[in-house]
């Protein structure tokens, strides 16, 4: 395809990856009705364009695509539209990454290399390109001006993806980077044969797949005469073999004497399309016959030539004539000189030098690390044609793969075949026996099969894409420190897509959104709340303690935050039912509407919100402790710039409003205070241990390493402790531990996973990052299933952990907001943890929503949080419950009795909703009869099993960079040995006898029997 197989993918704003808080990207939803993972491999038939109704998501993009197609008469898009073509090309790019892996395996290389042009012959940075003084007038555009001279980086190479001998039959390539200004460069890529063996990108990738690793005569024969015809058909395969044989069949004596053709066209300003070529200047000395015994004779010949004189080429162009004689889309068609005369436009000079000198070798190494891409240019010189458009996706993917910025994990063929059979078998079995009633090992395989289906069908790509691609500046390299540290704002976790999952990135989707403004208030959310959610009497979850409730809020504050408009500036108004009023501000007058701040959303033409940005990062990065930007993060550290977080006598310092200073301070209450205090202390403990173990580590490195350790420990606790506590079944315990540690040492389980999902044979931290069907983000459906407010009790008894004596009973308002920290200081962290440890949270069910949260003061508003939850879910386009469960591959409800066996609940549902299709998602999730031992519904669990592993699998710091070189050996050991119990006991060792012996710290603790006096030895 070119002399270079890709480039490093820059962020969507085309700026270097910096540690900063980005502005919210204005991303539009697209292709909801035809998701990328359901698109056929090679798209729609040519000429068929996907329709989009005016005003519908994607309509604006569709109109832009039509305009682009009309504006570019030279080009035709595969699949009928730029967007359809983009999807196809992304699939081809993934195929190229697989080619790279195959080459790596066949060659025995230590790392992934370029898919093509792997062996560099020459790399220089100081060549010069000078345009001719007599440059024709219509070719004078942009940087192409008479007499203009620019520095050029030059890379000459063999075309193969293998580092074979120069004598092997092969093409040769030239890649130029013309530096036209500080912010302007133009990459020109050429090969020493006038046409491509492939007409288009599909043929090109098919050829690459067939030839990958074909390093022997037998393998090449099989590739050319068996694999290639099967992929493209006999006529195309014959033509491709003929072109390749002609291109590689002659002996190359010197790369300085070769002519290199672009083979694809580019725009040349107002002059229109051109193809370009680089040919030796007249009078270049001949080369000696090649030394067949020297595998690197081309490099040695160039070194000898440059030792004595400059190497000079002439850059020429051919103008476009017409679609028949000079086709744009067919890379296998030559532009004959009689149809398109060759016009010299500039001279390229590579100055003489000693290529054996240290400086020259260092330069060659730097050049070899570059990623050349024809799209590194300006709009006036943008590439044209199918092969060039495919290069955008292909180069981004293969270059990122080569640099270790992007990864692919091929699925074994047995998993594809056996997986389909096993999925079908479980689908039939589950009609009779649900997964949670199966024996644990069979249930484990059933869950893995579920997860595979959900990954294919329920990860929707919501990213806005360039279609067709656009020219851009050469991407800046990633800052080195971001390879080993989490950024403050979540940028650069995926180095190939630095904005993925960052602060401001849009929430994704597991289901196509359903926007029905006409049903936003039907049925009235206040009625739903009063009839179905209001807590009549506290219903406890007896298998858990209140620490479980505090923990999940602690986690949710790390993961998700929908940004709101300032109170009173842009509101949602919910009409009150007849005869009811609401005071929207503390002490305010009664009104007939309930009012609360609207979420900021991305809109199309002033219409309904399509996507909402996350004001937190989507990664599991401890941002609730550390903050979501550099300013906040630094303000929380010790004033002298040390690595530790600032504490006052072991407690978080209060802010001016009385709420402690920490990474996330909204919805503050005593449970959050306990979690934040505990993990701030844990951070400082890790810092102290790192300083002792590595005395030469500077404070900045100590801070960032401690953050990595604490964030990973939090992820581990949630995965292997909190989740099995709230989903208390053997199969969940096994599967969640398998996510972190790998499957149990059981031959049957391992055999089953070997057949179904070989990637599950190790814990996720032992795998490579994998985003599966869509770029990583948390989703609106994920937010919906984590609405677990019923866990919060309305009152709390504080108890002395030594004597068992009551320290007072407090209602929620006594322990929330600014009131929380005085309570924490008075009772101490140990007593707070113990008081929560022996008390139960509420069950996640109907009629158990905390009364205190139904008249909750926040940011100058008084809100009923249950009404807000319902209203926001509708406005964010989350489907109603019946569509929600059907979209997650559960049978639809036909009647209310299918949802719950409780007759009173059925009666209330019928009073509120007209049909089962009207039931709100949150209501349905609460009403559903959960599996035995589950703290929430099976429907919610479907989103959980998809996203729980995804949060680990997508994260570079929990997969490929979860290693001692990044975390330090001490940090890895700290995580391996650590858990919630160890964190609690490190900071409150006096609680050792009270924690559960055989369960997690989220299970009920042993209560102290009050009575006898015990000396006060509390640690605070």
From TrEMBL:
Any one GO molecular-function label of the UniProt entry: oxidoreductase activity, acting on single donors with incorporation of molecular oxygen, incorporation of two atoms of oxygen
Pfam family, one: Catalase
InterPro entries: A_dioxygenase, Catalase_core, Catalase_sf, Haem_peroxidase_animal, Haem_peroxidase_sf, Haem_peroxidase_sf_animal, Oxylipin_biosynth_metab
Residue span of region Disordered: 1-78
Keywords for this protein: Dioxygenase, Fatty acid biosynthesis, Fatty acid metabolism, Heme, Iron, Lipid biosynthesis, Lipid metabolism, Metal-binding, Oxidoreductase, Oxylipin biosynthesis, Peroxidase, Plant defense
Composition bias, Basic and acidic residues: 30-41
Sequence ranges assigned to domain Catalase core in this UniProt record: 143-217
Cofactor(s) of this protein: Ca(2+)
GO BP, one annotated term: response to oxidative stress
PROSITE patterns: PEROXIDASE_3
Positions with biased composition (Low complexity): 44-58
Name of the protein in its database record: Catalase core domain-containing protein
Organism expressing this protein natively: Planobispora rosea
Lineage, broadest ranks: Bacteria, Bacillati, Actinomycetota, Actinomycetes, Streptosporangiales
